[in-house]
Design brief:
CATH superfamily of one domain in chain B: Biosynthetic peptidoglycan transglycosylase-like
Distance between the termini of chain A: 150 Å
Largest interface: A-B, 51 and 63 residues
Radius of gyration of chain A: 45 Å
Strand content of chain B: 5-15%
Number of helices of chain B: 22
Helix content of chain A: 40-55%
Strand order of the largest sheet of chain A: 1-2-3-4
CATH topology of one domain in chain B: Penicillin binding protein transpeptidase fold
CATH class of one domain in chain B: Mainly Alpha
Shape of chain B: elongated
Strand order of the largest sheet of chain B: 2-1-5-13-14
Oligomer: heterodimer
Largest sheet of chain A: 4 strands, antiparallel
Largest sheet of chain B: 5 strands, mixed
CATH architecture of one domain in chain B: Orthogonal Bundle
């Protein structure tokens, strides 16, 4: 049934319709809605509950989370440094030689070495290298002196730096073990596959093996050990010694001696160090200055 | 009449149904918006206290005193906060805090109305919960979208946290300015007391700050902060937290601020330089969020003296120039003090007032050192040419031909020429023409190499005028380079950091003091002896006039047109470089129109600082190398016996000599192979 709507024709009709149950109900509920919201804040509570329910699925954005991420990144960075340092310390503690020590510390990393460990590492060095790094007398003075507080070892691109520090972190003495030294410690002395005459530095002082050793045995007994500091290098070599050369200049109190070995028709030269003053005395005998 | 009533009823009907439909549509719209936006809303940390868990980086002095904590937020429970403060912050920010569930609807509607219908006016309506939401998650961008999201997060905070938790989080993370985040730190910074001990007037002052931490910063705008404090007190009285009498009494007091002024910035040029260095090494995250512990080289006593000396010295300079505190531009200054035995920077001031200008002139401002560069020239001449302090040269007009450029004709500061003199006198009186002759002989490249060996790192131009300090350097570089002279030629790299530890105390960096002998001790001593003479009787004699009596050596430096005035000097233990001048565009000219030299401006600052810095320490002399002997020679001839000094040695110079050189003698240190007479320096060059 279609009901025709028409505007009230009379004022009474207007009043009647205005205050109808429907209108009064609508006004009442609207007022109730507004009043209850102002009184009980149920809209805010409803929304708050809804948002709390969806909280775990929402992104961690905003300044507070950003701060958290910065903190996390900082912790990771610092832990990385500490972890690397701990690893380096562990490797260094286990190191038996400077080669192992060097492989445990990357450039820029550093660790503190115990005095006893340094002594042990120093003792593991071939005498020719250890004496060149630091004389035993100086080392004894430093290690047993009252100034030394700790030994600081730092990896470097060109090898290892070892600092002997006092209690104020002042460097009392510094050692640099170059990459070449480390290679030499690791591989030992590599023979040079040449005739000794082809090595220019020996050119003015080459002697036959017989002549050389005859002169050696003319030296006082106590000098001979200083003449050939690493006899094992020569004892390990196969073949016969044909010639011996003396290097034409001294380095840090040592002079190189070149021993030419011949085996299976091939010649090679083993270079070892001798103390300068012992070699000098030998030279006098070789040149016939003293007899 | 009836018709009119009907029309009114028609209007009411229209309004009612339109309103009903509008409200329904608005409700649906809001719901849609909530669903749409809720996915992008930030996640709320649980518990809320997680917001204050960032570890803080702590920076200490060399003796272990705390200098600053970066990102510090000291959390205190509500029962350890003054009730007056809690009432004050509630009264001024949100007095219905305990009644609403996130927003104050009436204030929000009012704010919305004003924003929409009264352009230009702003009505703050944010509750404490909304402010917390904004501080935790949102930028300060003003947009309806941001406000809406902020409101939604406030609802969630209210739905999941108690009022006490919200208030606790708010009070402990809110910014009060001056670097104070959280009420405890604010109470410490502004009143040097704990938050629990705040009095009513102090609490009200603090509660007024969050509205505009900079604008109401009581260190800078005390009266403004008091006015705001009174607003807070009146508000407290209006909402019934205190009586009107209490408000009146409190508003009549003037709370005493902490004596040690701090600010939102580090407040220190040294700390700025340090933090910049740390950030360079470890990055921003580690420095600001890593919680590292840094032990620096700074000595608080020396730093305070340095700040005071620079302030006093620049005030004296203002007076000389006739400037008062209202002058738009005033001269600046910088000071760097280095421990000569290690290279540790003990004090650093980069300007007159950090709060006026944060530009650190001690490390970032490169200026011409003027005659301050002469020690490098003289040392190099001694080393390269075999000259010594008794070598005689002639102070005369000099013209040096430069290929492809105009001839260089340096003039003396006094515009006068004094004829023959030994090098010690030339250095003492800072004779430019003799330095120019020396650099002509040794070459500017040699001077540059030496300066770099001593620690100058700025790029230096290979020109003859390098002898008169034409290349730009910083006060830190000058202090470091002169320090090499103080230690008999042993170079130490200057440094700011002794040690860095992670939050668990594990060392991640420590400084090792490495020494490198870069200069020959005997030659260094000869230069030091000349620099002592500069202070005792030369261009730096203002040092003695200002009462500094200990053995010291140093050199003034004043550039052309008086743009820069320096004094760099040292005792055997401490080397200090001071620069004064305008940042740009002005010269140091006194009220009589006379230029102000390094001896007049920087020298007294140096003397004031050193007098106090070395107080209580034993007097130390510069060690004399074994191969040094002392001879007394005539200043003009370099010979042992006084000889008649000719009035004019060279007829060509007649017109430039103003007065004859007085026959004076001088004690010079010489090496065993150095013979003071004949004056080979004059003949052989």
């Amino acid at each position: 049934m279609i009901q025709q709507w028409h505007e009230p024709a009379t004022f009474q009709e207007w009043l009647k319709r205005t205050f109808s149950f429907l209108n009064i109900g609508l006004v009442f509920f609207a007022a109730l809605f507004i009043f209850s919201e102002f009184r009980f804040n149920w809209c805010e509570k409803l929304l708050g509950r809804y948002l709390a329910a969806t909280n775990p699925h929402r992104p961690e954005t905003g300044s507070i989370w950003k701060t958290g991420r910065h903190t996390l990144a900082a912790n990771r960075f610092l832990n990385d440094i500490i972890q690397k340092k701990q690893e380096a310390t562990q490797k260094v503690e286990q190191a038996q030689t400077f080669v192992e020590l060097s492989s445990g510390i990357l450039p820029g990393e550093w660790v503190t070495l115990q005095k006893e460990q340094f002594k042990s590492l120093y003792r593991s060095l071939p005498q020719s290298i250890s004496s060149r790094l630091i004389s035993p007398a100086r080392l004894i003075w430093i290690l047993s002196g009252k100034d030394l507080n700790r030994i600081f070892c730092e990896g470097a691109v060109q090898g290892l730096n070892i600092y002997f520090l006092d209690s104020q972190n002042r460097v009392i003495h510094q050692l640099t073990i170059s990459s070449e030294d480390i290679v030499q410690i690791e591989t030992g002395v590599q023979p040079i596959s040449k005739n000794i005459e082809e090595i220019e530095e020996f050119s003015n002082s080459i002697f036959s093996a017989r002549h050389f050793f005859e002169a050696v045995f003319m030296l006082p007994e106590d000098i001979i050990p200083d003449l050939i500091l690493n006899p094992e290098l020569l004892l390990d070599e196969k073949g016969q010694i044909q010639k011996v050369g003396i290097w034409n200049e001294a380095q840090s109190g040592f002079i190189n001696l070149g021993f030419e070995f011949e085996a299976n028709g091939r010649k090679r030269v083993v270079v070892v160090k001798g103390r300068e003053w012992a070699v000098w005395q030998l030279g006098l005998i070789l040149r016939g200055d003293t007899r | 009449m009836k018709r009119l009533l009907i029309n009114i009823l028609r209007g009411i009907r229209l309004l009612f149904y339109s309103g009903l439909i509008g409200a329904a549509l608005f409700g649906f719209g809001v719901m849609g918006l909530v669903f749409f936006m809720s996915n992008d809303l930030p996640k709320l940390p649980q518990p809320l206290s997680r917001i204050i868990e960032t570890p803080q980086t702590q920076i200490y002095t060399s003796s272990g005193e705390m200098l600053i904590t970066l990102g510090e937020r000291k959390t205190v429970p509500l029962n350890m906060i003054s009730t007056d403060f809690i009432n004050a912050i509630l009264a001024i920010e949100d007095h219905r805090f305990f009644e609403h569930d996130g927003i104050n609807k009436l204030r929000t509607l009012k704010g919305l109305y004003i924003t929409l219908f009264k352009p230009g006016q702003v009505q703050g309506a944010s509750t404490i919960t909304q402010q917390l939401a904004k501080n935790l998650f949102f930028s300060f961008e003003q947009s309806f979208s941001r406000k809406f999201k902020e409101m939604l997060v406030a609802f969630q905070i209210e739905a999941t946290c108690s009022k006490e938790e919200i208030l606790h989080a708010y009070i402990n993370q809110i910014h009060f300015g001056a670097g104070a985040q959280g009420v405890e730190k604010a109470a410490r910074i502004f009143f040097d007391k704990s938050a629990v001990n705040l009095t009513l007037d102090e609490a009200a002052l603090l509660a007024g700050l969050p509205k505009s931490p900079t604008g109401y910063n009581p260190f800078r705008h005390y009266n403004r902060a008091l006015a705001r404090r009174n607003v807070v007190l009146n508000r407290m009285a209006a909402v019934g937290f205190i009586s009107p009498d209490q408000a009146r009494q409190a508003s009549e007091t003037k709370p005493l601020l902490a004596a040690k002024r701090t600010d939102s910035r580090t407040g220190s040029y040294f700390l700025d330089a340090l933090i910049s260095r740390l950030v360079h090494i470890y990055g921003q995250d580690v420095v600001y969020y890593g919680g590292i512990r840094v032990t620096t080289t700074i000595d608080l006593k020396l730093q305070a003296l340095a700040v005071q000396s620079i302030r006093d010295g620049l005030n004296r300079l203002d007076q000389m120039m006739g400037l008062d505190s209202t002058a738009p531009v005033r001269p600046q200054g910088a000071l760097v003090a280095i421990d000569t035995a290690s290279g540790a920077v003990k004090a650093m001031v980069g300007g007159r007032d950090y709060y006026e200008s944060e530009f650190n002139r001690a490390v970032n401002s490169r200026r011409q050192p003027g005659s301050g560069f002469k020690p490098f020239v003289y040392y190099q001449a001694f080393r390269q040419m075999g000259f010594h302090p008794a070598t005689v040269m002639t102070d005369r007009p000099v013209k040096i031909t430069i290929k492809g450029a105009p001839d260089w004709e340096p003039k003396n500061f006094s515009k006068q020429y004094q004829g023959d003199m030994i090098l010690k006198q030339a250095m003492t009186h800072s004779v430019n023409t003799i330095s120019a002759q020396l650099v002509e002989q040794i070459g500017p490249g040699a001077v540059i190499n030496l300066a770099k060996t001593c620690g100058i790192k700025s790029p230096l131009n290979e020109v003859y005028s390098i002898a008169l300090g034409s290349s730009l350097v910083t006060p830190l570089e000058m202090a470091s380079a002169f320090s090499t002279f103080a230690t008999q030629g042993v170079r130490h790299e200057p440094f700011l950091i002794w040690r860095v530890e992670d939050p668990f105390g594990r060392v991640i960096y420590e400084h090792i003091i490495q020494e490198k002998q870069v200069l020959e001790p005997a030659l260094v001593y000869q230069v030091v002896d000349m620099l002592k003479s500069v202070i005792d009787r030369g261009s730096g004699k203002s040092i003695r006039q200002h009462g500094f009596t200990r053995p010291a050596a140093g050199k003034t430096g004043t550039t052309d047109q008086y743009n820069d005035a320096w004094f760099t000097g040292f005792t055997p233990t401490l080397c200090v470089s001071i620069w004064t001048g305008f940042d740009k565009g002005r010269n140091l000219i006194d009220i009589n129109g006379t230029g102000i030299t390094g001896g007049r401006s920087a020298g007294p600052i140096w003397a004031q600082f050193m007098k106090e810095a070395l107080k209580g320490q034993p007097e130390r002399h510069f060690p004399i190398p074994e191969n040094i002997r002392f001879e007394t020679v005539v200043g003009a001839t370099g010979c042992f016996e006084p000889e008649p000094v000719p009035q004019v040695l060279d007829e060509r110079l007649t017109d430039v000599f103003q007065e004859p050189v007085p026959p004076s003698t001088s004690v010079v240190p010489l090496k065993p192979d150095q013979v003071p007479c004949p004056p080979h320096g004059k003949e052989s060059p």
